[in-house]
Structure formats: C-alpha cells, structure tokens
Specification:
flat; mainly alpha; two-stranded antiparallel sheet
Length: 367
Amino acid sequence: MSESTTDGSPARQDPPSPRERRRWRGYLADERAEAAVYRDLASRRSGEERDILLALADAEKRHESHWIALLGDDVGKPQRGDLRTRTLGWLARRFGSVFVLALVQRAESRSPYATERAATERMAADEQIHEEVVRGLAARGRNRLSGTFRAAVFGANDGLVSNLALVIGMSATGVGNGVVLAAGLAGLLAGALSMGAGEYVSVRSQRELLEASSPNPAADDALPHLDVDANELALVYRARGMEVREAEAHAADVLSRVGAGTYQREAQTVLDHEAIGTGLGAALSSFCFFASGAVIPVLPYLFGLQGFAALLVAAVLVGVALLGTGAVVGLLSGGPPLRRALRQLAIGYGAAAATYLLGLLFGANVS
C-alpha cells in the first residue's frame, strides 16, 4: 500500500496489488479526461473564465502526475476515462454551456479521493475546491440566463401539466372526442395568451422598479454647485448603503476632483436589466413554449385516436416531455437531473390524476 509524505508526494511502501493498479490506472485516465474537459471549456471562453478553466486543467495535470509516479513502470497504455467523463468532454467540445458546467460541478462532488488511501490529502482538498470553483462559474452562467429562457422552460411545463389535466378531466366525463379536442385547443390558446400577458406585465413591472431605483445621471450636473462645507453629497452615498465615514470620505474625494476640474462622471451603478429579459421577449417566449407544451396532450386526438388509447398516448408523451423539462431545471439549479425529472413527472401526473377523478365524479353526477 502507498502512503504520502508530508509534502503530499507519494511514498511507495508495499508493491501495489493488481486490483490497486487497475484502480489507479482508472484514476489516471479520469484525470486526463477531466483536464481535457476543462481545456475544451476554456477554448469556448475568454478573459478571466478562460484563465480559471485552464488553471483547473493544470491542477488535474498535477493529479495525473501523482498516479504516474505511483504506477511507475506499470502505467501501461493510456486508457479511456469513464463514460461520465467522456460524455462531459463530448458536451464541452460541442456546447460549452452552463449545462456542461453544472454536470462538471456534480462530477467534482463525487470525487473518490476523500476515501482513497493512495490519494494525498492535498488532492482530496483540490477536488473539493474544484467543485466550488465550477459552482461559481456555473452560477455566472445561470445569472446570464435571461428571463426569456426562464419563461420558456416554465411556460412549457405549465402547458404540459395544465392541458394534460384538462384533456384527461374532460375525457373522464365521457364526452365525445370532438368536445375533448375543442377543450384542449381552447385551453392551449387561453393558457398561452394568459401566460404571455402575465409574463409581459411581470417583467415590465420588474424592469420599471429597477429603473426607478437606478441613480439619475442628471444629478451629476449639480456637483459643481454643491456647498462643500455642507457636503450633502455624503447623504447620497449613505442612502446607498455606505457607512458615515466612508460616505464622507468618498464625497470629499468627488468634490475635490470637481474643484480641480479633473472630475469625470462616475460610472452609474445600474442594475442589469437584461438579467430579467425584455417584457416582449419574455411574453413571446412564454406564449410559444406554453403552446408547444399544451399541444402535446392534444396530439392523439388530432390524429384520430379515441378513448383510453388517446389518454394513454397523451399521458406517455407528456411524461417524456416532463422528464425533459425536469432534467433541464435540475441542471440549471445544480441539483440531480434525474431526481428533478422524476419529481416533475410525479407532480404532473398527480395533477392529471386529480382532474381525472374529478371528471369521473362529475360525469357520474351528470349522467
């Protein structure tokens, strides 16, 4: 068995067993594959994010050297990393998006080095820190996602669940296929219009609130005429959250530069309105994606299926779509995609089952 020295380097004691050598070769292959993932991601980035990803690739290279030193002459031919890491590499080369970073974040959280005696404490600590670094990069990507994308994901999910519930509930009452189809199409249009209008009002209202909180650039024009002794400018900075001394010092600096004629307009602290998207863009996206989700339960009836067969096909199609939207939400939130997908499926089917039972009850009472 191998232990590490005080500086973290490997110190060979007993010859490794064949099982240990196989495991170490697997670690070596994974480190090489992970370094390639970070390099591929870096190739699609620029500036600070690119430098961070390349630094992570260098760290994986150090881990690779550790396993090479332990294996010595037993390194053997280069092996392929595990399927998960190779999949991440494929995604990174083709997309390089926040979804890949979210998957990499989860991969780093599952590092085996904490319980691997042949790995150094430094390596285990590296992997923990790598998870936090990737979490930060993924958070940047999530913050850049606009309200339009958010409206798209949740609009599609709402369309799937609400129209499946409507179609199944109407079917359970025993009405004809034509009535079910008409109800489904009416639900599609009504829901899509409602979602679009609601999203527009919501985003516009949020943007207007943010704009009302942003500093007025015209206030800078008053600076040359302020009473230096009264220093009311400090009140502005205190209102923005500065402590008294900090506000007074900053105000004095600004006023001194105004008096010297070297003052330039301060960069306005404007909240990033694009983080929530535009009202029209969010409304159109919400309308289209609600409609795209709501049309799925109607498809079997459009193609002439009837009765239980139509219900079954509609439920299966919606179930697949719910798994997809749930996985997307899981990736964006950094959680387990499969668990989120199954949760989304359970919620959707639960709503549909409730309306089906209500439809049966209503149909029995009417008859």
